[in-house]
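Possible race condition, two jobs.
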Amino acid sequence: MIGVTGSTGQLGSRIVARLTDVPLRLIVRDPARAPSVPGASVAQAAYGEHAALLSALDGVDVLMLLSATESADRVALHKATVDAAVAAGVQRIVYTSFVGAAAGATFTFARDHWHTEEHIRSTGVDFTFLRDNLYLDFVPGFVGSDDVIRGPAGDGRAAAVARDDVAAVAASVLLTAESALSGAAVSTDEHSGATYDLTGPSAFTLAEAAAVLTEAWGRKVRYEAETLDEAYRSRESFGAAPWEVAGWVTSYAAIASGEMGHVSTAVADITGRQPVGLEEYVGRG
């Protein structure tokens, strides 16, 4: 059986829509919001709720662990969820991480993902890590009400990837793992212990993104580079918590540092089709 956390979200719902004709359990906080998937069972549990997760994961062999919403205690919630999955007998965890995940990553949330990856490794459970780049879906939202993209990204590039392409990869990896199961043992497949960078077909600067949006929208969009100090001051005006402001600002800084610029062939290698690029994505309207 395949279990999926976060199946009510933008990425999770896309993944479960691709998981047909397999035993499937949707692990959600609110069963009323669970996607309608023929034959799927629904279990109520939130990240970090050990007892509820033990029940929800009973009988699940492969777990699609979507990263929790950003929060000050996200790593602790991830670790507790992983521990519950291992205790429940889950044999493979497929985890949505982030490109450049490392203890010293510029992007603070990428550090969270590294700590989660390390905890998964420490349990001895089989795993596959899907390190997503910035979502293409977010790029149009970078544009302010004055048609300006502002951030300390410099001339750095991001190989942004569409959520649909991430979902296609995740579904393929999950189905491969499910078919590899034999009784209580997991047969080795090509995704066992693998880490994949999931990117679009090319990397672009935010100035180039502005040009693409200008063409698609028929109005002038431009990129205005900020210093780190300017970025922190502008984001702090929203009244968000310091950890959240740091996440916003360092996502741009990670573009500037080159940590999001690597282009991978993993989407095409795993799904058999090329990933969507920015021009195609915004052209869809």
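Job #2 (started ~2 s after job #1):
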Amino acid sequence: MTMSNTGGRRKPPTIHDVAREAGVSRGTVSRVLNGGHYVSPTAHEAVNAAIRKTGYVVNRHARSLITGRSDSIGFLLTEPQERFFEDPNFNVLLRGCTQALAAHDIPLLLMLAGTEDERRRLTRYITAGHVDGVLLVSSHSGDPVAQELCEAGVPLVACGKPIGLGSKVSYVAADDRDGARDMVRHLLSLGRRRIAVVTGPLDTPGGVERLAGYREVLAEEGIEYDERLVVSGDYSRASGEAGAERLLTRSPDLDAVFVASDLMAQGVLTALERAGRSVPGDVSVGGFDDSSAALAARPQLTTIRQPYDRISAEMVRVLLAQIGGEDPAAVILPTELIKRGSA
């Protein structure tokens, strides 16, 4: 750490201090800081050792003026703000993405856009270059955000396959359809035959794919699809409770419910208890996610585990590769059936 000539106050170390400590040129240090291209392994290690010894910290603003990059990533949730605090999955994904980017010394900016005005303002902010890329955590069909960012050339990776954008947008997703199939097969193995479903929003990939998996297994088993056994929710606990009440009115003989999220399944359990139905005695209940809501439920939920740590890490990996010039990519990760007390 250098000292000022006018007093004892310490000045922050500069790139010149790092170069002097490492015994290399300032240009070599600059190349290491910008990716290490055309730098020998010996010089690379010497520069990194000098950075550690001097305590040098990159001036991100100065570097952004040179590289044209902001050195930050946006985590964009296009849902009402209260959903971020209610749904535990969003927090898990945010933490995982933050940790994955920390390994690259890149900060993550949380962006909540639950209204049309908020989406419009954030789209302007993003396309103005304030972030280098976006991790899009929720996408409904007809939502213009993904389309507009894509058309503006902003590197983008969605959590789940965006509906209607084909191969234009990179995405990372759990295998929603296969997970739903595993759950419905499990409920059938328990002897259940009147299996209802509370779907996610049918303008989202998870809502569509989980319902498709449910229908496929029924068809394989020769069980007729009954629309009275199907209601949709919005992944909130309240929508699960309301959905279960509609199902019990329409089809009081139901003996199982596959619920497209653990949070909605908590609401289903509340409605079943109020109706005097025991779980799993009268009705088996299966969720989806293996979130903290599954463990907080009573009884604890049999559910489908999404590999959130891997989803977060892959979203970051694919986005950084795209920022580096690679083409869009798609990653689909396997799910796992987790058996607990509800089914």
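The chain is about 45% helix and 15% strand.
Logs attached separately.
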